[in-house]
Amino acid sequence: MFFDGWGDLVRLVVIGVLSYVGLVVILRATGKRTLSKMNAFDLVITVALGSTLSSAILSQDVSLSEGLLAFVLLCALQYGVTFLSVRSDAVQGFVKAEPSLLFFKGRYLDRHLKRERVTRAEILAAMRASGAGSLGAVEAVVLETDGSFSVVRTLGDDRGAMDTVEGMAEHSA
Question: Which of 21, 49, 155, 41 is nearest to 101 (CA)?
Answer without folding.
Answer: 155
